[in-house]
Amino acid sequence: MVLQHIWGLFINPKREWEAIRDDKCTIGKCYAMHVLFLAAIPAISGYIGTTQFGWQIGVGDPIKLTPESAAIIAVLYYLAMLVGVFSIGWMIHWMAGTYGAKPLLSQCVVLAAYTATPLFLIGLMELYPVLWLNMVVGIPALAYTVYLLYIGVPIMMGISEDRGFLFSSAVLGVGLVAFVALLAVTALLWGMGLEPRFTR
Fold it and tell me: 11, 76, 78, 193: most buried by Cβ count inside 10 Å?
């Protein structure tokens, strides 16, 4: 069922959003069948990429993380994605009344989870962390995520496309603020002694 929805979001997103809405998935089921599995892709890929291949800046040797440091970062990364999906879903639920929608919290979390699908899948690129390649593939994935959001909000929230456009724009703004907040928390953690450890 998970793979069916993933495939459908890329083949016919409008029809797939309708199928997702009609599934009436609970938060627990959504996490168990979608988020827990897909959020592991970038975390595991990042661990492997940073410990086995590393990344290069200029013409020097690749920079790699120690396995211990990479493991801590991978676990925190995974937890941040799990919390992030729920937080965005909660914010969608909180904002819904402003746009004339009355969804269940579970619908909002499901919307956030399936919207993030391209970002989860693109996490495979972290296996080989080459900056230019990640940018070339990552920017289209981010654009498709935004597209899924704009298609999915009116369907999942049961509102008109005009209101859905405004609602989606607000959700996008919340997502950007959340991303900046995550960067700030990362900087704070690094300042408290949890910075990455590199191999020599």
Answer: 78
Q: Is 55 helix (H, G, I), strand (E, B) or coil?
A: strand
Asked if 163 and 132 touch (Cβ cutoff 8 Å), the reply is: no
Asked if 157 and 164 count as a contact pair (C-beta separation under 8 A), the reply is yes
Q: Are 19 and 5 in contact (CB under 8 A)?
A: yes
Supply the pTM of this predicted model: 0.91
Tokens encoding 163: 């209101």
